[in-house]
């Protein structure tokens, strides 16, 4: 439609909207007297009234269109800003840097938001409020001081500008709270893969992008192990492994105040191994995570063996240890064979098992000990023996003689079946629990994760009792009628 046609349509609409009232006015007048002088108004002047109204209507229409456009612009999403500490959330932001919506991705983020409604709030005000809530709720402190800021915008220059502005804003908040914080910032581009990972692990797309870049550089790390960690813990892992990033900018240093030093972790590993530092070659210490627990990985060679340790980064406790022997220092490979070298020997392994069982060798009717191998690698000593009607099975550490696993099962005298308990009512869960703890020599206050269940096995009713003491897991089968211990197992839980 051209301008002439639009003008004609507006003129027609105005004329129909405002009819000529002359006939109605004359009908209401009295009889005509005197001489009526004819008067003809100029035609040009008559055209201007509808045209003026048409112009006014056009102006209103244009103004309305402009208003709608302005409203849409003010409420359109220009950027997405994501904040991750352990709380993980995102904000949709307009071009005028007004917050349009806030989305929490985990329960910690919901705690941070609380009753705050940040919609239509200035972005700087919203960021100040969120950082303040994180400080107040302990998510940001001297122990965990790192935050990740991620910005998504189609305009790369605008994204970089907003990224820098938010970094400066957060650093200013940290300084006001006397906190030496670390701000990691990046620009991100949303993708289907990142969205899927973010939804799967309940984190922002920004944190997903950071983790994806880290594991691309170090294949020993996994997305599943890093996703539950705080940004501070992720930063410590990347720093200890000297990983670099082309997209992430960092100001400040992630805090290590919650953890022991790398030197203390090394000392704990060497003490456990019984090795002096002067005998060690190729020592490496790195931060890592085991089931959400921050640990130091300590690896070294000594005496032709390779040692691997996981040391609890908070307490210095040995969480996990392994040793491979047979290679020269600086090589990884072969395994020590037989009972030579640093193995304790079959006699010592047998003695350790008998002592743990409280059985004299003279009272056994069957006794056997050997080195158990798996894929050509020596794993442990296996010790089996029979004393009376009870069969014992043990796994003994090759180097220290520690009991890695123990099993005990009692048999009857009438053809190998399991001894049946006495008839009558059951002893109850409390008595079964007490019998298991007493046999293990453990007080109930020292045990955790105690579980007692009534079960049937081979026609017998029994109680299954399981509990942990430190890193040792105990499993018992207790005769439900007599309280006799039918089976006992003990295993180090790695």
UniProtKB/TrEMBL annotation:
Q: What keywords does the record list, in alphabetical order?
A: Membrane, Transmembrane, Transmembrane helix
**TM spans (from-to):** 48-71
User: Which Gene3D superfamilies does the record cross-reference, listed alphabetically?
Assistant: 3.10.450.40
Chain ranges of the PepSY domain: 260-320, 376-407, 428-489
Anti-sigma factor RsgI-like middle domain segment(s): 79-213
The name of this protein is PepSY domain-containing protein
């Amino acid at each position: 439609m051209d301008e002439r046609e639009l003008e004609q349509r507006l003129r027609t609409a105005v004329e129909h909207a405002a009819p000529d009232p002359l006939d109605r006015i004359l009908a209401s007048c009295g009889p005509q007297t005197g001489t009526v002088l004819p008067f003809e108004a100029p035609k040009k002047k008559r055209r201007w009234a509808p045209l003026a109204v048409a112009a006014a209507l056009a102006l209103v229409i244009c103004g309305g269109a402009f208003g709608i456009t302005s409203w849409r612009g003010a409420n359109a999403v220009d950027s997405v800003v994501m904040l991750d500490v352990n709380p993980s959330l995102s904000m949709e932001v307009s071009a005028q840097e007004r917050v349009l919506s806030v989305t929490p991705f985990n329960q910690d983020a919901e705690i941070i938001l609380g009753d705050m409604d940040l919609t239509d709030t200035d972005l700087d005000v919203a960021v100040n409020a969120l950082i303040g809530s994180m400080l107040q709720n302990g998510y940001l402190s001297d122990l965990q001081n790192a935050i990740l800021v991620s910005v998504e915008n189609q305009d790369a220059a605008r994204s970089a500008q907003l990224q820098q502005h938010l970094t400066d804003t957060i650093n200013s908040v940290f300084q006001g709270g006397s906190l030496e914080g670390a701000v990691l910032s990046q620009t991100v581009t949303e993708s289907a893969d990142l969205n899927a990972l973010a939804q799967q692990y309940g984190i922002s797309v920004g944190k997903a992008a950071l983790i994806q870049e880290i594991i691309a550089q170090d294949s020993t790390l996994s997305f599943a192990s890093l996703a539950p960690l705080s940004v501070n813990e992720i930063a410590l892992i990347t720093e200890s492994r000297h990983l670099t990033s082309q997209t992430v900018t960092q100001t400040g240093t992630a805090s290590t105040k919650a953890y022991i030093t790398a030197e203390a972790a090394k000392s704990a590993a060497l003490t456990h191994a019984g090795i002096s530092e002067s005998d060690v070659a190729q020592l490496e210490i790195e931060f890592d995570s085991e089931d959400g627990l921050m640990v130091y990985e300590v690896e070294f060679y000594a005496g032709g063996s390779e040692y691997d340790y996981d040391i609890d980064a908070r307490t210095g406790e040995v969480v996990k240890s392994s040793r491979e022997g047979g290679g020269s220092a600086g090589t990884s490979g072969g395994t020590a064979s037989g009972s030579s070298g640093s193995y304790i020997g079959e006699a010592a392994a047998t003695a350790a098992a008998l002592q743990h069982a409280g059985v004299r060798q003279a009272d056994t009717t069957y006794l056997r000990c050997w080195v158990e191998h798996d894929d050509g690698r020596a794993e442990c000593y296996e010790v089996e023996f029979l004393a009376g009607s009870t069969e014992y099975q043990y796994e003994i550490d090759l180097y220290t003689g520690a009991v890695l696993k123990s099993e005990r099962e009692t048999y009857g005298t009438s053809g190998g079946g399991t001894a049946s308990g006495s008839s009558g009512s059951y002893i109850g869960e409390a008595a079964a629990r007490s019998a298991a703890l007493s046999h293990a020599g453990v007080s109930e206050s020292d045990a955790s994760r105690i579980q007692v269940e009534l079960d049937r096995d081979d026609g017998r009713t029994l109680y299954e009792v399981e509990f942990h003491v430190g890193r040792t897991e105990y499993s018992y089968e207790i005769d439900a009628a007599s309280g006799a211990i039918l089976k006992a197992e003990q295993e180090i839980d790695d």
